[in-house]
Automatic annotation (TrEMBL), chains A, B:
Pfam families: adh_short_C2. CDD domains: Lin1944_like_SDR_c. The lineage of its organism: Bacteria, Bacillati, Bacillota, Bacilli, Bacillales. Belongs to the short-chain dehydrogenases/reductases (SDR) family. The keyword Oxidoreductase applies. Keywords: Oxidoreductase. Gene3D superfamilies: NAD(P)-binding Rossmann-like Domain. One of its GO terms (molecular function) is oxidoreductase activity. InterPro entries: NAD(P)-bd_dom_sf, SDR_DHRS6-like, SDR_fam. This is NAD(P)-dependent dehydrogenase, short-chain alcohol dehydrogenase family. SUPFAM superfamilies: NAD(P)-binding Rossmann-fold domains (SSF51735).
Length: 199, 199
């Protein structure tokens, strides 16, 4: 399969790439590095990417930004970071990509544990994550040509503890390899409309 | 209590107003009618409303637009209707309103059944509804001064069957009065972080 991985340099993305490369052709997409550069917040850039890379079987998004702020400091403006990136960036990959993907292809997007198990500073990310998860569930019943869609909801991964661990005291970290397996299951399997929680 | 109801002329909003008026002072807010006019998509207008109406104990939002379109016809642009109105309009009522509401006040927002039980044409609304529900769950753990927050997720109401029934074949419609009770429970009760499903 020919698979696009967006967010290919991240902790999760780079692990997914490593596993997929054993069997598939992987196009690594990053905001500033990789085989192709993409500004996920721009629908025009997303359209351009799909026009530039042909014959795509699967799209994996392991990216998406959000502002982490106390609720009392969260403003409509700060909240738009998650809206434009984690929420709409990922959804636009599907709205636009549905017209380009090969038949029987798949989309796999990324949500996150805080939508189910809220953390302080996490309200904006929770909003974006849940919006993506329900969009996935709904889009799955309408996608044509056998195209499937799932999302993966990781908890904090062991490899990110030094960076983000303070937000997740008391959460049970998981090895990034377990998270990557959920993406592989989405791509290689036959399920659609699922949100795979890796908690 | 002094209670703002946004979307006061809608099928659900007008029923909530009728029930609340028996015991409370209600400020009816609409886009074009009511005691106060508000463009929910404008954070500046929301801030102006909170500056204009003092001593608020509860905010009820029974409003929010979304584009209903087949997924293959849904575009990033059409999707922004739900983002700006149902999702961010409602969330901005909280982000801004948290600094104005009376102590021990409450916010009650509106989600909807299609986030749990998807319908054709409903992917954009599903996204917005779930984003609101998870924001509510997360915001609840951070709101100060005893301020609470819940959402209500109605299914199709009997009173709207002639208008929207075709989208909801096979769903069990509920009387609008049952939906209104969920808002009353949110305002009068002590729970927070809940999404009351009325299915």
């Amino acid at each position: 399969m020919k698979i696009i991985v967006i967010g290919a340099t991240g902790t999760i993305g780079s692990n997914i790439v490593r596993k997929l490369e054993e069997q598939h052709e992987v196009i690594r997409v990053g905001s500033k590095s990789g085989d192709y550069q993409l500004d996920l917040t721009s629908p025009e850039e997303i359209e351009k990417m799909y026009k530039s890379i042909d014959n795509i079987d699967a799209v994996v998004s392991a990216t998406g930004s959000a502002s982490f702020k106390k609720l009392e400091e969260m403003t409509p403006e700060l909240n738009t970071v998650a809206v434009q990136s984690k929420l709409l960036g990922q959804i636009n990959l599907v709205l636009i990509g549905q017209h380009y993907l090969n038949a029987n292809g798949s989309f796999t997007l990324t949500t996150g544990v805080m939508m189910d198990d809220p953390i302080v500073h996490g309200s904006s990310a929770a909003m974006a994550n849940a919006g993506v998860a329900s969009f996935v569930k709904s889009a799955a019943i309408e996608l044509k040509n056998g195209i499937r869609i799932n999302s993966v909801s990781p908890t904090i991964v062991e490899e990110s503890l030094s960076k983000y661990g303070a937000f997740f005291d008391g959460f049970n970290p998981v090895p990034v390899d377990r998270v990557s397996n959920a993406y592989i299951k989405s791509i290689a399997g036959a399920q659609t409309g699922q949100n795979y929680t890796v908690y």
